[in-house]
Amino acid sequence: MARDENDDVLPDQDAAKEFYAKYEPKEVLGRGISSTVRRCVEKETGREYAAKIIDLSNEDTNTQTVRESTLSEVHILRLVAGHPYIIELHDVFESNTFIFLVFELCRNGELFDYLTNVVTLSEKKTRYIMKQLFEALDYVHSKSIVHRDLKPENILLDDNFNIKLTDFGFAKVLQPEEKLFEVCGTPGYLAPELLKAAMYEDAPGYCQSVDVWACGVIMYTLLVGCPPFWHRKQMVMLRNIMEGKYSFSSPEWDGITGKYTPKDLIRKLLVVDASERVTVKEALRHEFFEVVHCGIKVFDARKSFRFAILCVRCAVRIQRLKNTPEPLSLSSAVVDPYRIKAFRKVVDNCAFRVYGHWVKKGDCQNRAALFENVPKTELKNLYVSNLNRL
Ligand code: ADP
Ligand code: MG
Question: Residues that bind ATP, according to the entry (predicted)?
Answer without folding.
Answer: 52
